């Protein structure tokens, strides 16, 4: 699969419940703003699964794309990865995997307290802790959170760097969009678990799609769109 970074849609349905973060740039723009020059230090990358990282990197180079980490085993592991950047400077990690229904497979966010985040995403968002890996050599721990097994579902890769409690969110990251069955219950769970509701649950004016919006304990924003309403919008 050739990865044409300029064609990555702003919001991509990754699996039944998890629509990847909206990123501000060429496709998703606030009127009058044509440059998001501060991606911040908290946003990590989008992970894209490809069957041949080396071939994909060669194609990206041939198209003038920017490769920031050449193909090779991930430090401390065996998965072949590479890092590339899109024209707005957003990072994409290419991960060598077999065929998958969800090539856009990760969104990585850095957090200041991993256990707090795991607990929050479990209890407020109904996610599972799919995998946790500590890497003392490189002083970080990651937790993969999601609604189904990696390799078939998009996952949220929460990264804790030893001793780093806060990150700059910049102005480019917008949100992760998740599709629950009941945004009212979701909002209640978020409030109970220490999240902050920034848009109370209810129908959007004019289109009746029920949504709610919140920020997690680190300030990462998530929007929740009623699953049935969302599917109706696609009809
Ligand atoms: C799928 C998952 O296991 C990985 O790919 S981990 C990749 C690894 N992550 C980190 O190093 C996170 C900590 C880092 N300080 C950060 O905040 O991004 C990574 O990026 N490795 C780079 C490499 O060259 O292997």
Automatic annotation (TrEMBL):
Residues 1-97, 103-227 form the VOC domain. It comes from the Eukaryota. Its EC number is 4.4.1.5. The keyword DNA-binding does not apply. Signal peptide: none annotated. It catalyses: (R)-S-lactoylglutathione = methylglyoxal + glutathione. One of its GO terms (biological process) is methylglyoxal catabolic process to D-lactate via S-lactoyl-glutathione. GO terms for molecular function: dioxygenase activity; lactoylglutathione lyase activity; metal ion binding. It holds the Pfam family Glyoxalase. GO terms for cellular component: cytoplasm. InterPro entries: Glyas_Bleomycin-R_OHBP_Dase, Glyas_Fos-R_dOase_dom, Glyoxalase_1_CS, VOC_core. Pathway: Secondary metabolite metabolism; methylglyoxal degradation; (R)-lactate from methylglyoxal: step 1/2. Keywords: Dioxygenase, Lyase, Metal-binding, Oxidoreductase, Repeat. Belongs to the glyoxalase I family. Catalyzes the conversion of hemimercaptal, formed from methylglyoxal and glutathione, to S-lactoylglutathione. This is lactoylglutathione lyase. It comes from Actinidia rufa.
């Amino acid at each position: 699969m050739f990865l044409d970074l300029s064609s990555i849609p702003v919001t991509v349905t990754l699996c039944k419940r998890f629509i990847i973060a909206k990123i501000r740039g060429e496709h998703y723009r606030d009127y009058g703003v044509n440059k998001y020059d501060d991606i911040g230090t908290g946003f990590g990358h989008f992970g894209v699964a490809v069957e041949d990282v080396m071939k994909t990197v060669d194609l990206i180079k041939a198209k003038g794309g920017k490769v920031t980490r050449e193909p090779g085993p991930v430090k401390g592991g065996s998965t072949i990865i590479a890092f590339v950047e899109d024209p707005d400077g957003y990072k994409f990690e290419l991960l060598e995997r077999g065929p998958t229904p969800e090539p856009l497979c990760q969104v990585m966010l850095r957090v200041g307290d991993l256990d707090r985040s795991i607990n929050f995403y479990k209890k407020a968002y109904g996610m599972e802790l799919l995998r946790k890996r500590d890497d003392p050599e490189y002083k970080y721990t990651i937790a993969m959170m999601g609604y189904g097994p990696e390799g078939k579902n998009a996952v949220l890769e929460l990264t804790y760097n030893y001793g780093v409690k806060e990150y700059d969110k910049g102005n480019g990251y917008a949100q992760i969009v998740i599709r629950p069955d009941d945004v009212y219950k979701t909002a209640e769970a978020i409030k109970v678990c220490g999240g902050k509701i920034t848009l109370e649950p209810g129908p959007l004016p004019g289109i009746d799609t029920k949504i709610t919006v919140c920020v997690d304990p680190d300030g990462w924003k998530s929007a929740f769109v009623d699953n049935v309403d969302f599917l109706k919008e696609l009809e």
